[in-house]
Amino acid sequence: MKRIILLSLFFVFALANHVFAQTKVSGIVLDKSNQPVPFANVVFKGSNTGIVSNEDGRFYLESPNTYTALLVTSAGFSDKEIPLEKAVNYNFKIVLSEPEALNEVVIFTGKTSKKNNPALDILRKIWERKRKNGLYQFNQYQMQKYEKVEFDMNTIDSAFMKNKLFKGMEFVFNHVDTSDVTGKTYLPIFINESVYDVYGDNKLKKVKENITGNKMSGFNGNQQILSFVKDLYSDYNIYDNHLKFFDKSFTSPLSKTGIDVYNYVLKDSAFIDKKWCYNIVFYPRRKNELTFKGDFWVNDSTFAIKKINMGVTKSANINWVKDIYIEQEFEVENDSVFLLTRDYMMSDFALNKKEKSKGVYGKRTTLYRNHKFNLQKPEKFYKEEVNFIDNAVYQRPDEFWEENRFEKLNKDEQGIYKMLDTLQTVKRFKQLYNLVSILGSGYVEFKNFDYGPIFSTFGYNEVEGLRLRVGGRTYFGPNDPWRIQAYTAYGFDDNKFKYGVSGKWMVDKKNRVIISGGNRRDIEQIGASLTTTNDVLGRSFASSALFTTGSNGKLTNINLSNVSVEMEAKKNFVVSAGFSYRTLESASQTFSLDYYKTLPSVLNPAGVVESKVTQSEANIQFEFMPNRKTIGYGVERDLVDSPFSHFFVNFSYGLKGVLNSDFAYEKVQLFYRQPIIIGPLGRTNITLETGKTFGTIPLGLMSVIPGNQTYFTIENTFSNLNFYEFVTDQYTTLQWNHDFGGRIFARIPFMRKLNWREFVGVRAVHGTISDENRAINASGLPYNAPEKVYWEYNAGIGNIFKVFRIDFSWRGNYLNMPDAAKFAVKGSFGFYF
C-alpha cells in the first residue's frame, strides 16, 4: 500500500512539471473541534481568484500566477492568512478560530438572516435590473460563438494505469493532465469543437444559430454519445429563477426565491476591470436540494454580474453526477453594458459521490465575441431549417480552426485528436467499445449489419409459451438514407414461426420525405395502446412479458401489411399518409373475436357469425413536437433527452370491399402530452388521449382501454385494469403524473441520505359504445364501457439503488367488476439523473 501511495505521489508531482499553473493549493478547512467548515471562502491573497469549500470543507485552488499567501474566511470565524512557501501545496489542514475580541465584526453565523442583510439588499437590486442588463438592452443582436466540449476519465492513478483493461493502450496515458477545478488527474477521451454565427431578436423572441464549423474525434458517429454531448448544450441564463441541467431544475443563486433556499454573505468589495464590485458568497440552507454553493462579483451601479463561480452541492439529489461546476465571465462593453464572454461548465459523472471515486468529466467551454446590435433581420430569417446538411461544415481544414478558434488549444488538447484516432485502431479498445455499445443500443454490431435488439430475445405468453426471437437491421452508419429491419420468432407451445420485415427510404433529405412499408405475421395483444401508428414492427410489452398477473391468453393472430409516406413539412411538424391491410383471428380457444356478419332474425335465429376480420384502411396523420431536439439527419434519428410537447392527430378510413375488406368506418384520434417543470417542486406530465369511431365495427377494431397485467409500469396504460376489461368506440383518457424529485423526503432527517424520490399520479377514462356495435358482438366477451368515469391513483418511490422505482396503485371505483384488481404493485428499472 505504501508503495502505491509513493508511486501516486511521484506521479502527481511528475505531472506538475507538465501543466501551466504556477500556484496550486488543496486542503480542508476545520474548526477547533476538527469538524469540517463547509462553504468557507478561499482566495489567493491580493487577487479575485478564489473558491468556496465543499460540504466536507475540502477545496482545490489553482492559478497561472504566482501567489505567496492564502486568505480563508467564513461566517462566524476570524479571517486566517496562510503563507505559501512553495508553488504546489497539497493537503493543507486549515483550522479557523472564533473571534477573540468583542470588537471583531461577525455579521452572520450558520443560517444568515433574511432581515438587515446587506447582501440581500444588493440581490434585490439585481432582480430589478436583470431584464435591463446584457443582450436584453437591445432589440436585435449578432455575435460569434465558439464551443468546445470534452470528456475525460478522471482520478487517474498508477494502479489504474496498470490495469489489464488497458493492455495495448498504455500510450494514452501520455496525455494525462490535472484539472484546475478539482486538482484531479484526467485523461481526455473525446473532444468536439464548433463555431457558430448567432442572431437574436428580443422583440420577436427568436434566436438562430448557424453552425459554420464542427470538428470531432473519439467515438465519432456514435449516436448515443452524440445525444449525450448535445444534452450538455442546454442553454441557461444565470438570471433565470431556475436552471435546468440533466432534466433537473436547480434554483439559481440569483433567483427571486433564492432567499428561501440560500444563505448570502457580503464578503468583499474591489475594483475589477476598473469597475467597483461587491463579492457575495452563497451556500444552501438545507441539504439534498438542487442548489449551488459559490460566489459572484456584481457591479455597484448597474448591478450586473461581472463574474460568478458556482458548484452543485454534493448532497444534491441527482444521480451519477458528483459535481457540476460553472464559471461565467462578463466584459464591460461600455459604462452600462456587461456582456457574457466566457461560459465554462464541468460535470463529474461517477457511480458514487465518494471523494476518491473514478468518473468522467464532461466539460464545455463557450466563448463569445464580435457583438453587433440593432441590425434587424426579417422574421422569415429565423425560420428553422427542417434538415440542414452542409458536409463542408464537418470537413473544415486546419487553417480554418487556426483562424476561428477564440483561444488556442493547449499542448495536451492539441494531441487529443491524434491520440483518439489512433486509439480507435487498437483491437482491445474496439472490444471494450463494442461491449458498451451493445448495452447502450441493444444491438450487436457487425459490418453493415446489427443483430438485435437482444433485450427482445426471450418472451412468454399462454399461447406461445416460451418465445425466442432473433432479428437485425442494416447499418452502414448513423445517417443512413435507408434501413431494412427483420425478425423471426418461434413459440414452443404453438410450434409456429412468426416473422416481420420492414424498410424505410428517405427519398428527399431536405424535407425528410420517407417511404416505408412492411409485413408482419405474429401473435399480438391488441388493445395494449389506444393511439395507433404506422410502425409495422411495433409490438407491445404485454404480448411477451416473462411474468404476468392473471391470464394473458386474450391474444390475436395478426397479419399486417403497411405502406406509407411521410414528410417533415416544417421543423418538428410531420405529415404522413398510409394504407394498411390486416387480418385478425383469435390465437386462443379461450378467447373469441367473433361478430355477426348477419344479425339474428326470425328467418335465421342464429344469424351468420364470422371469426376472422379482414380490413383495409387508409389514414393520414399529423405530428407536432415543438422544441424537440434530434441527432443526425438519416432515415432514423435519435432524440436528445429533453422535455418537449407532443401533439398527434390520426384520421383513419375503413375501406369496405377493397381487397375483400369487411367494414366501412371513420376514426379520429388525438394524443397530447405536456411536460411541465415546476421549478424546485419537480416535474409534471399531463397526457390526454381522445378518439371516436363512426360506423359499425367488431371487437378486433374497437378501442380497448389498455390494461396492464405485467409486474412492470407501462406508459399510457391503467395499472389496475385487465386486458379487455373496458371496450369502447368513443373514449377520453387523462393522466397526470408528478415527480417531486425528492423534495419531500429531503425534509425528513432519517430518509434524507437515501435520496429517494416521490411520485404521485391519477389516471381517468370515460367511454361509450354505440348500440350498433353492441348488437354485432358475438365474441361472448361482455362489452363494458366506462360510461361513469373510471379512475385510479398511484404513489411511488423512485431512485431506489439509483435504478429502481416501485409504484403502488389503487382502483378508485368499479370495485365489483369480475376479477377487479383493487390494488397493484408495479416496478420499473432505468438510469436516471
From TrEMBL:
Entry keyword Signal: yes
InterPro entries: CarboxyPept-like_regulatory, DUF5686
Keyword Nucleotidyltransferase belongs to the record: no
Signal peptide per UniProt: 1-21
UniProt keyword terms in alphabetical order: Signal
Pfam family of the protein (one): CarbopepD_reg_2
Highest rank taxon of the organism: Bacteria
Protein name (database record): Carboxypeptidase-like regulatory domain-containing protein
Taxonomic placement: Bacteria, Pseudomonadati, Bacteroidota, Flavobacteriia, Flavobacteriales
